[in-house]
Amino acid sequence: MADTQRALEAPPAYSELTGSVRWLRANPILAAGVLLIAAQLWWKAGLLGRSFFRFDDYIYLEHASASGLTWSYLTWVDAGHLNVVGSAIVWVLTRFSPEDWTLASAVTLVLLGCTCFALFRMLRTLFGDRPGILLLLSLYLLSPLSLPGLSWWTVTLEQLPLQLALFCAVSAHVHYLRTGGFKHAAAAAAWLAVGMLSSFQGAAVPLLLFALTSAFFAPQSWSRALWPVLRKHWRTWGLYLALTAVYVPLYLLRLRTSSAGLTKPATFADALTFAGTLLRETFAPGAFGGPWRWAASGVDALADPPPALAWASWVLAAVVVLASLAYGWRAWRAWAILAGWLIAVDIVPVLAGRSSFVSGVMLGLSARYVWDATGILVLCLGLAFTPLVDGPGQWQARRRLSRPEFAAATTLIAAVVVGSLWSFYDYPTDPTASAAASYIATARLALADAPGGTVILDDPTPSDVTGGVLAPITNASSVLSPLLSGSPSSRPVFITQPDGTYDHLLEFDGYGRLVTAGIYGVASPSAPAGGSCWPATFGNVVVPLPTAATQVTMLRIGYLAASSARVLVTFGTQSALYSVARGLHAAYFPVTGDSARTVVIQQVSGPVPCIGSVQAGVLLPSEAGPAIPPLAVAG
Predict the structure, then answer these.
(1) Which of the four pLDDT bands, split at 50, 70 and 90, describes residue 397?
(2) Positive or negative, the Cα torsion across 431, 432, 438, 444?
(3) Which of 216, 243, 292, 567 has the most beta carbons within 10 angstroms of its beta carbon?
(4) CA distance 277 to 261
């Protein structure tokens, strides 16, 4: 009675603190898991802060800005990837703030947080609130195999929704197995659909659920459990199979429109090289905190483990497998599931989509191809060492670890944590990311401040901005068109090659500013006798050039006309009819490399205009004249 009275008389803040302490004591595993995930998000936010859009990111951004939220847009396939979920996310973000890395990073962190919580929930569902699941969660959170993919937005938009859906589907399916409630099977099917609509790898998740059910939720041997499991849960497998049967034809149908279709390795040796490199140099070292050393940087980073550590990781992997078999013979099923996933999901699809134009070694050293396998590794480690909660095939309580065994396990875990931290801090972020961010920010200001109807020459953007993708992906119109706003009639216009009258032709310079497009080459001298116009003789104007112009791609003629007319412009062996406009203008004519010492303007109809200056050469951003925005603002 007295305790109740004191509790009633306690201040609200004290009561809340007491309640929080009680909750922490009652839920220590949950609280620790939340803290680990929060720390990881803060950790990975630093990586995203040093990254920026790269490669296919700009393809997705341009496609989203030019399309409505239609079925055709959502099922668009880029380089063999059908990512409906990612396309929807890009479309929404483009409408809010196009090419905004801060917003994209925030969404990435939200997806990453949801994925980590989904994994934590899956582990708690399978194994309960045991301290061991915190170790499994930490292995996933610290895995360096996620770093190259996480810094590449296109890969993130595919992999995080896939992994989120996979973990949620396993949790829902396990709830179905335990309760028999078909609503849980329906929830699992919904998550399967999300996974398939994120990546083709999602089509393998139903097989994972079947393998998990027959191996660990049936009392018989694995081979004898297959048919009873099929028969007992036939409605659920029918639902999963129906989803897969709808998805696979859709994917194959849309794959016809992809820039990269199905392919095959040049030789069987190439396939073995890729598989061997991926497992030996990337996945096995990554499972123990590797690769400890990287080649290249940013999204191009490749695993480059020291040979001794790579082989040591394989020895440790064999030790872990043997230890799990000594702990419980049934553990071999978990390793079989992991091997099947690596082959069916991470090796065969890559060989079918990339092996014809990228070497097997380069593919094998790309850690992003086994990012998804990190979650499967964590799941299989749990199945190999931890008893299931309320499973029909629940293992008997295991013996406690001896002191030497406990010391060895603790040392291995500490080494994995230290190695993961080492790999993270050794990971070379893209050195050009800050330059790309500055360029896009400056171009955003330039396009916003450009007068209505501005004509911009569609030059390639610097390779630092896009990462070096081949044209036309890197053209300014492709990279910067998502930044255009306002009505179509008032927006700046991109042109590939000027041909006609353009009085204020602009180009983007290396900083992202709009500057005057200038001709670099040969310019005509001043008009004779101090005049401003070159003289016309019998309707012809001949403008000499001081030297022969070579490697010319563009001819510019400045003129003043009192009325409209038509003239024939000749440079070397090339001629073009031109309609003269009244007033002061500049005419541009594309040419194909002729060498000539004169430019002839011949009257066709109407009076010959006053011809001022003539330049022959190539169009480049001018270093003289005003810029939009000024350099001080851009900097």
Answers:
(1) very low
(2) negative
(3) 567
(4) 24
Q: Are 355 and 271 in contact (CB under 8 A)?
A: yes
Report d(CA 606, CA 610) in Å as an integer: 13
Select the more confidently predicted residue: 265 or 581: 581
Q: Are 617 and 549 in contact (CB under 8 A)?
A: yes
Residues 211-231 have pLDDT tens digits of: 999 999 988 888 888 999 999
Q: What's the burial of 357, exposed, middle or buried (CB within 10 Å: 0-12/13-18/19+)?
A: exposed
Residue type for position 70: T
Q: Please state, in angstroms and rounded to a whole number, the distance separating the CA atoms of residues 301 and 291.
A: 11
CB 164 within 8 A of CB 52: no
Q: Is 527 within 8 Å of 534 (Cβ atoms)?
A: yes
- For 421-447, give one letter per residue: b (16+ CB within 10 A) or e: ebbbeebebbebbebbbbbbebbbbbb
- Mutual angle of helices 234-255 and 205-216, in 10-degree steps: 150
Q: What is the pLDDT of residues 353-368, one digit of tens each?
A: 766 667 778 888 999 9
d(CA 304, CA 291): 6
Q: Are strands 294-295 and 302-303 parallel, antiparallel or unpaired?
A: antiparallel
Q: Is the pTM of this model over 0.85?
A: yes
